[in-house]
Structures are given as structure tokens and as C-alpha cells.
Amino acid sequence: MTPIIGFAPDAEQTTPGLLSDCVNLIPAQVGMQGGPSPVVPAGVPVLPAECQGAAVVSRLDDTRRIIAGTQTKIYELVAGAWVDRTRTVGGDYTGGAESQWSITQFGDATLMANRANVIQRSTTAGFADIATAPRAEVVFSVGAFVMALNTNDGTEKPDGWHCCAAFDDTSWTPSITTQAASGRLVATAGPLRAGARLGEYAVAYKNRSIYLGQYVGAPTVWDWIQVPGGEAGCVGKNALCDLGGVHFFVGDDNFWLFDGTRPVPIGDGVLREWFLANSNPAFKYKTMAVFDRPRNLVWVFYCS
User: How far apart are the first and last CA of the chain?
Assistant: First the structure.
């Protein structure tokens, strides 16, 4: 019996065991298995409006919070009900229909950014503006800092980065003393699309380039280098996931892995051409990559 080796529409079609088309099949430890069906989680009501970002975050004592944001509000799931955690000063948020929340945890503080409003912060209950923080498209924690990418600090800086003061996510005013800092990544064109921690490094992605940031202390604080590797980049802030020491991300022209050295394309001869033919280039920025750790799979959701 010929074993099924999986879905590979770009490979030679006469390859034994290859699937050129399939529905509801996913890779398994041995061969393939049926994919999961959609379910409605018990005891979790629908949000009052469309979800534009959600995360399960863990505090230092390992207790968890389930946070979700809509275009105008932030909610927390508490005892089976969505509790409004929107800021009390400043009113509803002003994000647009396309705004997506970026969410990170730094110690006991949950931070959220949608680029329409300054970064939001909460430790237990409601969120509030961080007065000195910029607006940002992406936020993530790395080492003693929270990093913000694609920023506006009064001036539009789509290629800009900011970091908070060391061990203080409430302080963002640049200072050699506190090590809060900012800068721009201008060696290549375009805005910063995505970013994430990779060990003790910070990684920032444009559509066709990658920058690796290393903490070097005052006065520079973070030193950024452009990563060699052609035109590898990430199409959107949700098109990236950490597999545990390596990033998987969806680029304009391929699927990639990056471990801090060089990006490695992994779609050639498997499904690169199929994906380019079946995905809508106008909406690639909406692509989502999610790591399913128990199955050791990456799910990629995209606009056809």
C-alpha cells in the first residue's frame, strides 16, 4: 500500500502518495487525518461586535486573562461573560473597520495597540492610555522591554520603532537614563508590518525585508541590522507565529522560517505556486498564521 505523503500541488503529479487536491485532511504523526470541525465553545457568549483581535495572556502568578477587542471597545471574559474593560478616560476607541489589535503581556500588565489610539494598559481591570506611549501597529515584549513598531508619536513613522523604559512599560519618553528609545528602519522601503521576540532578540518585518534588533545598552539601547536573505518579509502582523525558537511567516512570494540567521523558504516545489494562484494579493495583509502546538501544525488562513 502506498502511504499518503500529503498535500503538495506544486510537486510532480505522478509522485506516489501525493495529494494534489483534498478537503478536510491535515498532516498527522503518521500519514494524514481528518481535520477538526468548527464548534461553538460552551459558556462563552458572542462579543457585542466583530472581534478585531484576541489573546489568552498569562500573569506572573500564571493566572490567565482572555482579552478581546472590537473596533471601539476592549472586553475580558470573566465567569462566562464579556466584561467591558474599555478605558474610562477618553471614551470609546477610534479604530477603523480594518484596525486589528496587537496584544502582548509584560509582567502583570496587558498592553494593546491598534495604531488609532495610544497604547493601552491594564493589570487587573479596565484599560487606560499610557500617556507617554506612541500609537503603534504592533507591540510585543522582549527582555526588559516592550517594543512598538509602525508608530506615530505625533509624527507618522510607519518605519519607526519605540521601546519603553527598562522594566517600566508605563514610561516611553526617550531617555538615556531610563533606556526608553526610538528610531527608524530606513535601509529598505515600506512600513513595518509585523514583529516578534526571538529569544532575546527583537525581529521587525517589512513586506520584503527583515531587521534583527539586539539590546546593547545605553546610549543606543537597541542595535538593528538588516538580515541578508533576498526579499523575504512578512505580509501582515498576524501572518507570523513563533514555533519555539524559530518564526514561521507568510511572505509576498513564499512561506518562510527564520531562526535569527537567514530566512529559509519552505514552499518551493510544494505549494508556493498554488498559494500565489489561490490567494488574493489585495488582501494578503489579512493573512493569519497560528501555531497548533499539540498537533505541531501551522494553520494559515487567507483571503482567496
Answer: 35
The Cα–Cα gap between 251 and 265 comes to 9
Residue 48's Cβ-side half-sphere holds a number of Cα atoms within 13 Å equal to 13
d(CA 274, CA 288): 17
Residue 1 predicted with pLDDT over 70: no
What is each CA distance from 234 to 41, 254, 288, in whole angstroms?
31, 10, 11
Q: Is 167 helix (H, G, I), strand (E, B) or coil?
A: coil
CA angle at 292 for the pair 288 and 296, rounded to the nearest 5°: 125
pTM tops 0.70:
yes
- Residue appearing with cell numbers 457568549: 45
**Average confidence (pLDDT) over 158-174:** 98
Q: Which pLDDT does position 6 carry in this prediction?
A: 85
Cα–Cα distance for residue pair 289/269, rounded to 1 Å: 20
Longest dimension (CA), the chain: 68
Cis preceding-peptide flag for 16 (omega within 30 of 0): no
What distance in Å separates the CA atoms of residue 290 and residue 267, rounded to the nearest whole number? 17
Task: State the pLDDT confidence band at 42, using cuts at 50, 70 and 90.
Answer: confident
What are the φ/ψ torsions at residue 37 (nearest 5 degrees)?
Answer: -100, 150
Considering only residues 135 and 13, tell me which one the structure prediction assigns the higher pLDDT.
135
Could you read off the pLDDT of 68-116 as tens digits, one per residue? 999 999 999 999 999 999 999 999 999 888 899 999 999 999 999 999 9
207 CB burial (10 A radius; 0-12, 13-18, 19+): buried
Do 64 and 57 contact (CB within 8 A), yes or no? yes
**Coil, strand, or helix at residue 102?**
strand
